[in-house]
Amino acid sequence: MSEIGFNRLRLNIDDTIVACATPPGRGAISIVRLSGPRAIEIAERVFRGRKRVGEFKSHTAHLGCIFDGELRFERVLLLLFRAPNSYTGEDIVEFHLHGGRVAIDWLIEILVKNGARPAEPGEFTFRALVNGKMDLIQAESIEEIISAQSRTALLSSVSRLEGRLSEWARRLKERLWDIYTRLEASINFPEDEIEFDISAVYEELSKVREELETICANYDRNRFVFEGAEIVIAGPKNAGKSSLFNAIVGENRAIVSDIPGTTRDIVEAHFELDNIPVVLYDTAGLGKPSDKLDSEGQKRAYEKLSSAHLILFVVDGSVKVQKIEFKFPAKTVLVVNKIDLGVAKENEKLFAEYRTIKTSALLGTGIDELLLFIRNYLAANHCEPPLIGTARQRETIRHLKNNIERAMGYLETQAELSAEELKSAIENLSELLGENLTPDLLESIFSRFCIGK
Fold first, then answer.
1. Using CA atoms, how far apart are residues 291 and 296, in angstroms rounded to an integer?
2. N or C: where does the chain have the smaller number of CB atoms within 10 Å of the terminal CB?
3. pLDDT tens digits, 195-236
4. Contact residues for 116 (Cβ-Cβ < 8 A; gap 6+)
5. Domains of the chain: residue spans and CATH
6. Intra-chain end-to-end CA distance of the chain, in Å
7. pLDDT tens, position by position, 141-184
8. Across the chain, what does the average pLDDT equal?
9. Which residues of 191-228 are buried (b: 16+ CB within 10 A; e: fewer)?
10. Number of Cβ atoms within 10 Å of the Cβ of 117
11. Helix/strand/coil (H, E, C) string of the chain?
């Protein structure tokens, strides 16, 4: 029995597993996937077609019926993928049947009765990893693709599935291994006068460090590609924030009223701008709290402002504004709303101090200009899809960069310590690729997967 375990459970990879590979619920077609050493045997017990399943060639489709004992259950299309040329590296049988919860559950019950085991979340991809069909970066990218919130995030994840990050990591590992072995040789065999140009090595490591810094910076700048750009609407009460929120979203999501302080809790909407996912938040009006509920609403508003990628600070331009009681961070634009009522002359000088867009949420005036500003702002803070795509990868790269910096610092005066840091850097690259799997690492990744993938 081959058993591989991590915190969540221990997985017997000699079992044949089964799960629905498509979302639950009604649909034209659902797919039930069977993978493992007994997949063909179990399929033969329940499927009747023109031939036995064992006689089918790999990567072929066959029409037939599923039987529960002698009861004919469903007409299905069976697809066979023989090991090792399958997703998991094992024999895989897929049953394509009419969508619907009853049919799916019944088929899985039949397959379990005949020797299969219900799969755990992510177990198909876990087997692909164990069987060498993909590395850990590619396994992570599967979940990223499923969870992608935009086309940009999807393309970035697909590039990792196709090996872009893995190839980069392997090439860097080879470069560092070459430096490490030459450094070790110069330390252990000084009498042989092995050629080791410290200045050239320092320069090469400096280039590696710069490359790692760029990778981390691009990920940090592009996190909203994966998580959504958080845009927060804030400002004093009765400035028309909720009306602006509805005008941007294009529907009445927030309650609009002439009564100050109508919005108490945060309202949010999700949409895309130029393939970038956006989460727009409407928050409680800022100012002197009228009651405990209002105080809590403002507290939540300030918390949301701290994490925002962009702040739309809204004021009513039609009434005199004495001063703006808000410290504008660089990520803020002043939205002067209600211009359909006119703009008080006393405000012009005050508003000129800020980056300003004038709108009438009621009439829709200035909304296109505001959306254009948001598009340009996100584009200016966005570069090409980042090489890395998860917090784990970012943290590993950070450790790697620290190794390189310490190796550079020790290189000239403490060569042994420099060699140790290079060795640690190589080990970090192995961890990035999943060459050194640990229970905690497996748990952190596969706990996020859905059943059937």
1. 9
2. N
3. 668 888 899 999 999 999 988 888 877 777 777 788 999 888
4. 15, 16, 17, 18, 34, 36, 38, 42
5. 3-135 (3.30.1360.120), 151-221+388-434 (1.20.120.430), 228-380 (3.40.50.300)
6. 23
7. 998 888 887 777 888 889 999 999 999 999 999 999 999 988 88
8. 85
9. eeeeeeeeeebeebbeebbebbeebbebbeebebbbeb
10. 16
11. CCEEEECCEEEECCCCEEEECCCCCCCCEEEEEEECCCHHHHHHHHEECCCCHHHCCCCEEEEEEEEECCEEEEEEEEEEECCCCCCCCCCEEEEEEECCHHHHHHHHHHHHHCCCEECCCCHHHHHHHHCCCCCHHHHHHHHHHHHCCCHHHHHHHHHHHCCHHHHHHHHHHHHHHHHHHHHHHHHHCHHHCCCCCHHHHHHHHHHHHHHHHHHHHHHHHCHHHHHCEEEEEECECCCCHHHHHHHHHCCCCCCCCCCCCCCCCCEEEEEEECCEEEEEEECCCECCCCCHHHHHHHHHHHHHHHHCCEEEEEEECCCCCCCCCCCCCCCEEEEEECHHHCCCHHHHHHHCCCCEEECECCCCECHHHHHHHHHHHHHHCCCCCCCCCCHHHHHHHHHHHHHHHHHHHHCCCCHHHHHHHHHHHHHHHHHHHCCCCCHHHHHHHHCCCCCCC
The token duo for 12 is: 């017997």
- Residue type at position 119: A
- What the block records as the tokens of 172 is 């860097």
